[in-house]
Amino acid sequence: MKFSNLMIGVILFWGLISCDGGDKIPAELQAMLNSSLEVPVYKSFEEIPAIKPIPAKSHINIFTSSKIEYSLLEVSEYNENERELVSFLEKNSMTGALKMVTYARQLNINHPYRINPYLPFLTYRQENVVLSSMGFGPAAVVDENFWQRNMFKGVMPVRDFSSNIDKNFYVEISPRSLPMTGLMFLFDLGDLLKIEDVIKSDQNLLEDVIYHEFTHVWHNELLSKEIRDRINSLSNETDTGHDAMIVSNKTLAFIEGLAESTEALFGTYISKNLQMSAKERENFFGRFSKEIQKNLVFLKNRQNHIRNNSYVYNLYDFSKCLLRKTTATDAENTPVGKARIMAKIQELLLANKNVTPENLETLVSDFTDRFYGGSGELSSIDLMDNCVADSPARLEAKEGFVGSLIYNLVYSGALVPEDYREGWPVVKSGGVSEAKELLANHINSDSELWTVFNSENGRVVAEERKQKMKRLLMIGFRELVLSLKESQAINVQEWLHYLLNEGPRLSNDVKMGITYNILKLTHAKFTNDKKLKQLFDVKTPSDLKKNREAIVDYLVELAQLEQLDSAIELMGAAPEVLVKYQSSTSGSLTPKTTKMNINRAYHINLIEIFGINSPAISQLAKKMDNGFFFKDRFELLAFATTIGKEDRIRKLLEDADAPEEVSDVAKFKKCFSGHH
Predict the structure, then answer these.
(1) I need a surface site. Which of 141, 230, 652, 668 has the fewest CB within 10 A?
(2) Beta strands in 89-196 (DSSP E)
């Protein structure tokens, strides 16, 4: 076996740990650390020891120091807030999040014991006031500029896999003896997320936020420093915002989509909320303002939208998508008078009349609740019947869609190697008839085999079947972690290309199942293959099953020709053509300077970018909805010249190129992987 430099360094250090002078490791644990065990293929989270969350305090002034030092706290030093959070993180419903970090760290180092056993978090205390005052809320960071100052002294939970017994060892370990760990920041996010409120709530909102942030931690720990630095740089290249609905850039969409997929896989807030009585729901949401209520509903609903793949649709298509049509209704029903006003606005937009960048904010503001509306959301059937899939350039940069793709590839079992598919035919790669049988079985079972395993959803699932589904989900998670580690992907295109071409553990049989799911979830938007487009140009899953035999035959043919990645050939085709402009529709109260890739723009963005709403702009918007993009800035300037806007666009391109003056605080914030 070939070890990485990091692996060799850790092994050598652990081998000398007893003579280090500062570290104290019990002999039994030392023997376990020196063993040659490999990471087990777990059947459930119950088999994995949880990472130990430990409060920390900072010793920094970010305005005068390039390093941010912190130290772990002794139990006797915890304040009331820290004690409550430790208790919260150690309750049964949180152990899945903690064990995900354990599993990812084990797979990263390729050993069940040689991992960092704890995860520091910072919350409110006097020493952390500089950090808490910056207003970034719950967040995660993995960066070499964060240094742990003191020893880890305490109990290390370990499972002895030779006896399958959980053991606790008291250890004292220098931070330099362990692989670097990420940090969790648990501060309030304005009035929306008050840690003091949500920690005492039984609605599991904070749990889902922590699942999201812990995903950022273990994901970034899998990456090399070079790749992490690249991701931090690229994810800050545009500033269009961070939301499952928003089109940002490919890198930000990938890291946030991954975290949102974990929310959808393991999150429980939505199931808790659905079980509330009307009175309980009123009491819970009644404590918040209407704006905060709306955002809380968004946090609940986005899990459903990711599970249902709702983000694949062009939610800004005023002419085709029911979501944006005034005949649409949500749980509260759109008032008739409001519907008439919205119909008039649509008419103006489509007719290019009386719509200017100046009044655009007012005209479209009432559309903002059409997705996360009232106390419910539009059904996936309505979306399927009335909307069209978004353009490829937007989809690869829309974190909600990326989240749906990752969620479904894990949840469907598509990533599970055939050796672990109980009840499915186990076939050898290359056997055409057997490969057809396997793929047909996968398509047949599709969503039926992997029913949500969480008993909170109200479905009665036989214990044997429930355990089987848990195991498949765990193996899917294992394959997700390994593929992220091995590919070092920075966007969804790189990750999928790795799965379809380079994954050493994945046979053609598995790759065909992955390809099928990609084509189904993307509505075949990323391929130029006419036959694939025809086979997947259907409205419903039942329609798709009618094409099963033809789909299987053609995917086998593509696999034999090593052309499965034709399913994603259009990913990455649209180049980055950045413009910087003043936007009134960015969600802020005042016009905001926004930098975006014009190839990901919608109609309302184009109106602000070009400063007009003319027939030429509407025509461009329609072309971009259908996949058109500018090949470079010169093509963009040529188009701008035809409508008399060359000087304006040249200025927006120059502004996007200009180096920004970034404050120390802004530089510090750019270290973070993301917020909730």
Answers:
(1) 230
(2) 118-122, 139-141, 146-148, 152-160, 165-173, 183-185
Structure tokens at 325: 């049509």
- The low-confidence residues of the chain, meaning pLDDT below 70, are 1-21, 61-66, 92-93, 190-193, 197-198, 200-204, 268-278, 280-301, 318-319, 322-354, 361-379, 422-466, 503-505, 586-590, 661-676
Rounded (to 5) percent helix, strand, coil in the chain = 50, 10, 40
Pairwise CA distance, residues 386 & 313, whole Å: 10
Q: Are strands 578-583 and 139-141 parallel, antiparallel or unpaired?
A: unpaired
CA distances from 402 to 250, 398, 522 (A): 9, 6, 10
Other CB atoms within 10 A of residue 241 CB: 17
Cβ pair 388, 314 in contact under 8 A: yes
- Please tell me the distance from the alpha carbon of residue 2 to that of residue 4, in angstroms, as a whole number: 7
Which residues 6+ apart lie within 8 Å of 458 measured at CB? 275
In sequence order, which ranges of 16-121 are alpha helices (DSSP H)? Answer: 27-33, 80-89, 95-109
User: pLDDT tens digits for 327-356?
Assistant: 444 434 444 445 555 556 666 666 666 677
Residue closest to 394 by CA, chosen among 328, 323, 476, 312 = 312
Integer Cα distance of 240 and 228 in angstroms: 21
What letter would DSSP give residue 637?
Answer: H
Q: For 121-159, how does the pLDDT look when each residue is reduced to its tens digit (9 = 90+)? A: 999 999 988 888 887 778 888 888 888 999 988 888 888
Kindly give, in sequence order, each residue whose CB lies less than 8 Å from that of residue 372, ignoring residues fewer than 6 positions away.
294, 297, 298, 301, 302
Tell me the whole-structure pTM to 2 decimals.
0.86
Whole-Å CA distances, 465 to 468, 477, 507, 672: 5, 18, 26, 40
Measured from the Cβ of residue 165, the count of other Cβ atoms closer than 10 Å reads 9
User: How many angstroms separate the CA atoms of 218 and 353, rounded?
Assistant: 51
